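Appendix B. Chain record.
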Amino acid sequence: MKHRLTFTLFLAGALSLQVGPGFAKEPTTLRAAVAERDYPPFYYTDPETGKLTGLSTDICDAVAGKLGYRIVNERYPFTRVLNNLDRGESDLACTLFNTRHRAPGNIYVSVPHAVEEIYAIALTDTLSQLPETSQNKALSGDTLQMTFGGVRGYYYGTQYIPHLTLYNSDKNLPEALASGRIKIALSNLPTFRWYAAEDDSIKDNWGTLGPPWYSGAIYMAFSREHPQAEKLAAEFTEALIEFKQTEEYRKLLRQYGMNAPDF
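Structure tokens predicted for this chain:
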């Protein structure tokens, strides 16, 4: 009995040593769902390194690291990103608008880390044919009767669009404009510019109509199916609030040409 007790105490001591210096605990992995098509400046594959980067990706990684988590990015079609969160097949997404349709499946971090502006984009020829008031003011009237193009699953605000054609990704929008299948594309400017650069027929042959069609805050969100979703959302909220006070955060905003949310 004495020898058994001695061995038990030795084993317990040995195990306790493994969490000390030199035996650091592995960070908990969180699976982040990311759309398969690049979406600059929030997430995209760096042409030089081949690695996923972007404002949301970098902020998510930084905040997670400060909390002892490790983010593993997994890429899917955007509609599957939303479905994975609903089913708990992904733990979080780092780039989402907070909408009433998405809220039932997600618990959002309480503060945003960026603001995205969505513009109505048209070819130069189309812009030249529109009355000046249509170009400089919010779209309405006859302009709304044109064929719009967007991405399946995206949120474009509450304004009703009578003629909206949905595509699988932002990559399809410049092609659809160039071919005449749509007259107006809804996109953020860095993303549209990213894909338009691949098509010589439209590369510099486009512009925007008026002020942003929709402007919204960008959040991180955790799947409600995750057993610690509320805890994670609370932890990331607190850590993000602190991170937004740092020079590291301001440097990332400058790097990606973004402004901080004013709330």
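Further analysis of this model is presented in Appendix C.
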